[in-house]
Structure formats: C-alpha cells, structure tokens
TrEMBL record, chain A:
Pathway: Amino-acid biosynthesis; L-leucine biosynthesis; L-leucine from 3-methyl-2-oxobutanoate: step 2/4. Residues 8-459 form the Aconitase/3-isopropylmalate dehydratase large subunit alpha/beta/alpha domain. The lineage of its organism: Archaea, Methanobacteriati, Methanobacteriota, Stenosarchaea group, Halobacteria. Keywords: 4Fe-4S, Amino-acid biosynthesis, Branched-chain amino acid biosynthesis, Iron, Iron-sulfur, Isomerase, Leucine biosynthesis, Lyase, Metal-binding. The keyword Amino-acid biosynthesis applies. This is 3-isopropylmalate dehydratase large subunit. Residues 289-319, 419-440 are annotated as: Disordered. It catalyses: (2R,3S)-3-isopropylmalate = (2S)-2-isopropylmalate.
From TrEMBL, chain B:
Belongs to the LeuD family. LeuD type 2 subfamily. GO terms for biological process: L-leucine biosynthetic process. Gene3D superfamilies: Aconitase, domain 4. This is 3-isopropylmalate dehydratase.
C-alpha cells in the first residue's frame, strides 16, 4: 500500500472511524450539489425526518439542465423548470448557499468551486457527479458519488469509502507547440485504458504537469474518471497558491491564507513516499490528440493512424470494431480531415477563461466554416463576464460562433444543445459515448479547445500546428 | 431472496446473502451509464418509473420500433440476474443507472469487472456486483442464452455463481460482501451513529471553522 502520499495524508486527516463493513467513514470538507443527482437524496432525507448536517460545508449550483439561451423563468422546458424549482426549494430550505443564475456566480459545478475558492488543498470534496475529480487539481481528494451517498453526506457529513491504491503518473519533459493539458490526459487514457485506473487514485506529477497552470491541471484531473480512476490530484505548489490568493476565500483575508498554508504544505506527498504503481510518460512526445472511437480511451495523435482492431488486445477488439463502424472511420487513416458539423467549446473539462482565451486567439481574424455550427458555452457566469470584459465574445461571434450562457450544455445534451441525427462534433468535452451529446447516431471527436477552434474554421479535424504555421506566414 | 422493495427514502438494510432467479446477458465491454440510461430520462426528481428506460436507445430506434436487445426479448421476461462483460457501468456517476436496472427487475449483476462508482451505487441499493473470469462469464452468457428459464444462484457469502452443474468461483468485493451479508449497507444509519466522532474530526481540520460544526446531535 502507498505511504506518505497526499492521498494517504488527506485520507488520514478525514478518517472518522473504521465501519463494520471494513470501509472508512470519511468527513467531507466540501459537498457540492447540482440539480440532477440531488433531488432524490433530499427526498430520502425528508422521508427519514433528517436535516442537512453541515449546510455551511455544502454549496449548490445549477448546470446540467439550465438553458444556455433564454433563461427567463419559468424555463420553457417544463422538466427543467421543475428540477430547478426542486433544487431551489431543497437548498433554500436547508440553509445551503446557492450560486443561482441571479447571483452572477452560477456555472458548472467544477468551474465555480475553484473560482470561488471553495475548493482548497487538503480537503475532501464530493459531488453527485463523476467529474468531481477536477478539484484534485488543487491537491484535494475529490470524487464523484451516487445519490444514496449524497443522502449519506447530507445526513451525516460523511461518506463510507474504501481506500484505493495510488498510481503516480509522471509526465516528463516539455510539451510541444499546440499541445495542451487535454492532449496529455487523452494520451494517458489511451495508454492505460478506460478501466486502467479502477482501484486507483492517480497522482499526476512531473515537469509537464508542474508547468501547467491550474486550468490545465483541472482538465487533467477532470478526466481521471474516464480512465477509471475515481480521483486524481496534483500536489499543491506556488501555482496553486497564486490561484487561491485571487479567490473570494482569500482575496480579502491574507491572514487566513497564511494560516492555512502550513496545512496545505503538510499534506503534499513526501519525497520518499511509496506508491503502488508508477507510470512515466514522455510529455515531449505527445501530439495534439483526438478520439477516433466511442470511448475516451480510443485516442490517437493527430498524425497517427487509427488502429486496426485486429492489432489491439483481444478484449478491446469488439469495442473498437463497433466504435469504428459508428464513427465511420477506417483503420490506417488518421483523424485529420474527418468532417465535422458542430464545434462545441465548453464543459467542465475545458470552459475556463484560459481555454476561451487560447481558442479566441486562434479564431481571431478567421471564420467558422459555412457548414459548421459552432458554439462557445463559458463554464460560469464569472468566466463569461471576464471573457466579455476582454472582448472574447466579440472575437467568437465575429468569427461565426454562437456565444451562450453557462451550463453543461452539449457535453451531455440535457438541455436544447444537442447533436441532431448523425452530426459529427469536434468537442472540448470529456465523453464520446454513443448518444452522449443528445443524438444516438451523433458522432463525437474529443479534443483540446484550440483543436476545436481549428476544426470549426476548417470544417474538419485539423492539426492546429499546421494552421498556426500558416497564420505566421 | 431478491433485493428488497423500497421507495426513495426508506432503505431497510436487509441481509442480501443470496440471489436466485433467471439470467439475462448483455454483451460488450465498456457499457457506460449513458447507455444504461440516457441523460434525457434523468430530468426527473424521483427514481420512480425509470425501469422502462433501461438501455432505451439500444432497445428502440428513432420511430420507437424495437431493436434487437436482450431487454426486449420475451424469453428474458422476469429475469433478475444481469450478466455483463468488462468495465460495466463506466462513465457518469448517475445512480439512475442501477436504479433503472433494479426497477426493471434486476437483483444482481454478474460480470468480468465493474466501474467503481457504479458498483458503489449498486451496493447502496443492495444489489450485488459479482465478478468472475472472462471465460466463466462468457460461458454463463452462452448458457443463459440457451437456457433462459434455468435457475442461476448467486451465493454472496460463499462467492459462487451456480447454474446447471457448474459452480463458478466468483468474487464479491470484501466490503461489499460484508455489507450485504451482514445487512449493513444503509450507510446513513451506520455513520449517523458516530456524530460525536464526526464533529471531533471536523474540529481537527484547520479549514473548518467552528461555526460550521453543529453543536449537538441534530
């Protein structure tokens, strides 16, 4: 078993007791709540006559079903309206802070936590959402839970968990031009598989990770779950602290920052820590990477051929054959030139200010291809406002993108933002499962925000590095 | 026995030592929770009625005509043991997925491997997720296809799956087995009993202000 890792330390600090099942009872430092997975949990709580145990350690927002166009209440979609009303009633009745659309703080739960400083190193953070792993970027132990576990957390402030193994994933070297955090994580999942992380927590380390800003670290931790790891984290460092200083939690309380910093330092992985497994990946060899199939593990560098299913390990062949049929791709081809109908820049993986800035810098002076509908869905109202203050909205709209209100949007198609028929999308989101973006015949190609921007402009999957060369000529 | 019937909110922690019934195979690796229940069916505030949407997009085409899928086949009506392959239930944490399967009638899932959150969600419903080798699982799927009315017996405590003359040496994760066999899978009640120790842990954490910690047992 691992020893001396951040995971071990944070686990120990939050362990209340060993339960008769052999699981540990862990105190939850921050419980994030959204409208889709929480109503049944509040319902169960009420039926048991219980109240929320730690409302001050709980924070809610609305993201999955919220419209990204007209947001006048009641929402046009009655089901969405009833979910929103249910959430409002549940959180207001329990004294839980709610970043609702009128607050100016609403957004995707994994964007607002970090930007408000709710997310801090050394915390345990849970949410009824598998992408809760995002918050691990700050050196928190953060993972998704189911609705019955949400009930547990609401009622007791705790979760019952079994300790996992720790795999260190060291990404060495410097990233090449046009290569981003998204390409790192798609490469990792491609190498280790969608179930490679089952039973593990991932510690991301190495020069290529340390060089990333918080946004990039969040993109990587976000997709830990796509590799089967319920949680992933990066040890907190000066980059982390610089971000935290600017947040609501510490901007006006430098003393509080200094008071907590020793704790954050104390939970960093020790130099002589022991891991259950270590994997090293050469970051300098990573290309802009995209998916060719229907799982986030079916990836290829943009110049790499799509694999022949017969050359894959036996257990992957059947899935690969079905995926290639669905996506209409052929082994031996590269994904470069794959026609797209939709460009989606958004989601908890890639809809932060830095993502939008990078995509906008690429888009500026270019135009969206005539056959592509392109949209930008900022991760939060704060991201939207900051982007608008910099004029990014104009850059996007002038190029032909639709500039929308914050939410999960086309990542999972629970509002009106959906693929239609067999449309293909270039998407900065996290899942390319069949049907994920709202149409069961839809085809999703996952990629980084700048690769989405490039695909929007050319109408096909494009190696952004070649476009950038053209731009500088 | 089958898993207990309960509505949202009451989760009587019963002992789940054994599940017996007929099987239904759903083949394929990496079957994600978006396949088990598409997101559009999650625009609800209760889990009631989700059973009918299990594997919906695999079962129906755009005109709502039935497609080939085990969940549409008459011969599997009444089956309660789902037999799957590797990494079943990956992706979204939605408990709606096991809720839908349970409400369709599934009392236990046997497979090569399961995504963690999915397995945890099943446990919270008292539905065992039992694993066995690829060859054993495929043989069981073949058997169920040929013998849809034959009884399958899952012994959670002994970690076996029995059908015909075959006994599979299966595995039920330690904590899950203990929870099911001893009937302690209602973790809310279990953890609620430790409120004092919870407050103590909370007080020891530098980032939790005293005012966030409730004074007495609520």
């Amino acid at each position: 078993m691992s020893e001396g890792t951040l995971y071990d330390k944070v686990w120990d600090r939050h362990k209340v007791t060993r339960l008769p099942t052999g699981q540990d009872q862990l105190f939850v430092g921050l419980h994030l709540v959204h409208e889709v997975t929480s109503p049944q949990a509040f319902g169960m709580l009420k039926e048991r006559g219980q109240e929320v145990a730690f409302p001050e350690r709980t924070h809610a927002t609305v993201d999955h079903i919220v419209p990204t166009g007209n947001r006048d209440r009641p929402y046009r979609d009655e089901a969405a309206e009833s979910m929103m009303a249910e959430l409002e009633s549940n959180v207001r009745g329990s004294g839980i802070d709610f970043s609702d659309p009128d607050s100016g703080d609403q957004g995707i739960v994994h964007v607002i936590g970090p930007e408000q400083g709710l997310t801090q190193p050394g915390m345990t953070i849970v949410c009824g959402d598998s992408h809760t792993s995002t918050h691990g970027a700050f050196g928190a132990l953060a993972f998704g839970i189911g609705t019955s576990q949400i009930r547990d957390v609401l009622a007791t402030g705790c979760v019952a968990m079994e300790k996992q193994k720790v795999r260190k994933i060291e990404v060495t070297g410097e990233l090449g031009e046009g290569v981003t955090a998204k390409d790192i994580i798609l490469t990792i999942i491609g190498k280790l598989g969608t179930d490679g992380g089952v039973g593990y927590v991932y510690e991301y380390a190495g020069e290529a990770i340390e060089d990333l800003g918080m946004e990039g670290r969040m993109s990587i931790c976000n997709m830990s779950i796509e590799g089967g790891a319920r949680a992933g984290y990066v040890n907190p460092d000066e980059t982390t602290y610089e971000w935290l200083k600017e947040t609501d939690a510490f901007a006006d309380s430098p003393d509080e920052f200094e008071r907590l910093k020793p704790y954050w330092e104390s939970i960093r992985t020790d130099d002589d820590a022991e891991y259950d497994d270590v994997v090293t990946i050469d970051g300098s060899a990573i290309e802009p990477t995209v998916t060719w199939g229907t799982t986030p593990g079916q990836t290829a560098g943009i110049t790499e051929p799509i694999p022949d299913p017969d050359d894959l390990p036996e257990e992957d062949r059947d899935t690969a054959r079905r995926a290639q049929k669905h996506m209409r791709v052929e082994p031996g081809d590269t994904m470069e030139g794959y026609d797209i109908d939709v460009a989606f820049l958004g989601s908890c993986t890639n809809a932060r200010l830095k993502d939008l800035r990078e995509a906008a810098a690429f888009v500026e002076g270019r135009e969206v291809d005539d056959d592509v509908r392109a949209m930008v869905v900022p991760g939060s109202q704060r991201v939207r406002d900051a982007a608008e203050a910099e004029g990014l909205d104009e850059v996007f709209t002038e190029a032909g993108f639709d500039w929308r209100e914050p939410g999960c949007s086309m990542c999972l198609g629970m509002n009106d933002d959906q693929l239609e028929g067999d449309e293909a999308s270039a998407s900065s989101s996290n899942r390319n499962f069949v049907g994920r973006q709202g149409s069961k015949d839809g085809r999703t190609v996952l990629m980084s925000p700048i690769m989405v921007a490039a695909a929007a402009v050319t109408g096909e999957v494009t190696d952004v590095r070649e476009m950038e060369e053209v731009a500088t000529v | 026995m089958s898993s207990p019937e309960f509505s949202d909110g009451e989760a009587p922690a019963e002992k789940v030592t054994e599940v017996t019934g007929t099987g239904i195979p759903v083949r394929g690796n990496d079957i994600d929770t978006d396949q088990i229940i598409p997101a559009r069916f999650m625009k609800v505030v209760t889990f009631d009625g989700l059973g009918q949407f299990s594997f919906f997009d695999q079962r129906f085409d755009d005109e709502d005509n039935e497609k080939d899928h085990p969940f549409n086949e008459e011969k599997y009506k009444g089956a309660n043991v789902l037999v799957v392959n590797a990494n079943f239930g990956c992706g979204s944490s939605r408990e709606h997925a096991p809720q839908a399967l349970m409400r369709w009638g599934i009392d236990a899932v046997v497979g090569e491997s399961f995504a963690e959150i999915f397995a945890g969600n099943c446990l919270a419903l008292g539905v065992p997720t039992v694993t066995a080798d690829q060859a054993d699982i495929e043989a069981l799927q073949d058997y169920v296809e040929a013998n849809p009315d034959a009884e399958i017996d899952i012994d959670v405590a002994e970690e076996t799956v029995t059908y015909g003359d075959t006994v599979i040496d299966a595995e039920v994760h330690d904590a899950q087995r203990k929870a099911l066999v001893e009937g302690v899978w209602d973790t809310t009640a279990l953890m609620g009993a430790n409120a004092g120790a919870v407050r103590e842990t909370a007080r020891s954490l530098p980032y939790v202000p005293d005012e966030d910690i409730p004074g007495d047992d609520a």
